[in-house]
Amino acid sequence: MSILRTLSIPLLIAGCTFGLVLWAFPEEVSTGRMLGIVLGWAGCSLLLVALLLMLRETWLARGFAGLERMYRWHHWVGMAAYVLLLAHPLALAAAAWQESRLAAWQTLSPFSQGWPVWVGWLSLLFLMLGLAATFATRLPYRTWRWLHIGLGVAVLLGLAHLILLGIDEPVLPILALAALLLGWRVIRADFGTAARPYVVQSAQRVAADMVEISLAPLGGPVAVTTGQFVLVAFFAGPGFRGCGEFHPFTVSSVENGGHIRIAVKALGDCTRHIQSVGPGVTARVHGGFGEFLAHRPPLPQFWIAGGTGITPFLAVLREGLVSQPTRLLYLYRSGTGAAFVQELQDIAHADPHLSLQTMQVDNPQPDLDALLPDAHELSHRECYLCGPPGMIAALKPALRQRGITPRHIHFENFGFR
Ligand SMILES: Cc1cc2nc3c(=O)[nH]c(=O)nc-3n(C[C@H](O)[C@H](O)[C@H](O)COP(=O)(O)OP(=O)(O)OC[C@H]3O[C@@H](n4cnc5c(N)ncnc54)[C@H](O)[C@@H]3O)c2cc1C
Predict the structure, then answer these.
(1) Among protein residues, the one whose CA lies closest to atom 47 of ligand 1
(2) Predicted local confidence at residue 168, as pLDDT
């Protein structure tokens, strides 16, 4: 990854924060009050950056080195904004304390102030609830997502707080920008106007709870390459009505005429329902996203796939022979049945560079360390891991213990939350 892309998001954060603080820097106020106001503006700018980092645009994801990286920064920046915005009223009260305890209390207490401060506290309350929900990862995803949207309300209330305080310069442009970013996310990503129309051509059962779906473009196809994932929503068709929600799925095959295939494992409500999809069902596809497997160096490879994490590797192998000696370890649970094993064995049989090891792993906490080859078998190999976040988290330290440095370990998590 180029240094510019690595620094892209930190540079954006620094630029926005210093820019806004300098633009709105308070004059003729005490140092304590100045600090309180600066904390407010810095928190506000971080909220704006967090809004930008939740957009789902292929060009933006390329610029910021991937959607998953944008989400990670979105979380960190959102939390930092929360801390600064919590410190904002506390610093103002501390400054007022110099004057008197009453003035300090009046700065904080919503009872002695009017709408401007009430709305400020309401914004902070929405921020607290939204962030509390963010950490409640056991919540069903759909509930989690709606509570997370509450954070957007907190942003707009925070800016209304500033307008009610009579601060209109530079609040109005920021309010407009915040509304634009929120609208952009909802209209382009959640309503799917950034997506392209497709139709299901076929749906083939490849395991007890996994179906491989072939999708044909109804207009211009999305630009997608092997190893990438797309956001797909299914709608109506013969005997089927989809939930219309966009979910990320890795393309398991990129074919002529813009046709793509995705393999969907039944995990929750939506993917369980998708198991019954059939020809003629309409869908919308947004992407391609991600660079997993895109820039593979000309070195021997070690690929580890867990369950549906086989899809990006399968897409590359279906494209043709691998150019480097490649060892693929495919771990799957008996419940899902060994999807694509026969096809992978046929591919490995025909490809002198590819060695395939398939392993049924039913233990919920498998000893992955024991499954890995020794250090000398892995030396000078580029490692690629794909599958559930738990598997990735367990494999990384095990590979590092075998002398593989982080620069040679690439992974794709099948969970964004
Ligand atoms: C980069 C990437 C590639 C993926 N590729 C595949 C694939 O090729 N085949 C496959 O079967 N699965 C794949 N997944 C996982 C798939 O997206 C989830 O299994 C699916 O979204 C679950 O939705 P659900 O409603 O059935 O389950 P839920 O019970 O609602 O969610 C289960 C988990 O899936 C994740 N999830 C749910 N909805 C979304 C969403 N809209 N956006 C992001 N994450 C969500 C959350 O982490 C949630 O905890 C991929 C995930 C990612 C992040």
Answers:
(1) 415
(2) 62
Tokens of 292: 């997993």
Give me the CATH topology for the region 301-411: Rossmann fold (3.40.50)
Q: How far is the CA of 327 from the centre of ligand 1 (A)?
A: 27
Q: Give residues with Cβ within 8 angstroms of 395, minimum separation 6.
A: 304, 368, 372, 385, 411
Distance from residue 297's CA to the centre of ligand 1 (Å) = 29
| Beta-bridge mates of residue 360 | 332
Q: Which of 110-124, 306-320, 372-386 is the least confident region?
A: 110-124
Pick the CATH number of 196-289 from 2.40.30.10, 1.10.10.10, 3.30.365.10, 3.30.450.40: 2.40.30.10
From the alpha carbon of 272, which atom of ligand 1 is closest?
A: 26
| pLDDT 10s digits, 41-68 | 999 899 999 999 999 999 999 999 999 8
Residue 337 is predicted with a pLDDT of 62
Ligand 1 contacts CB of residue 253 (under 6 A):
no
What is the residue extent of each domain of the chain?
3-190, 196-289, 301-411
| 184: number of Cβ within 10 Å | 18
Architecture of 3-190 per CATH?
Up-down Bundle (1.20)
pLDDT in tens, 139-195: 777 788 878 878 888 888 888 888 888 776 667 888 889 989 999 999 999 899 999
| Percent of the chain residues past pLDDT 90, beyond the cut | 60
- 197 contacts 282 by C-beta, under 8 angstroms: yes
Beta bridge partners, 283, equal: 198, 234
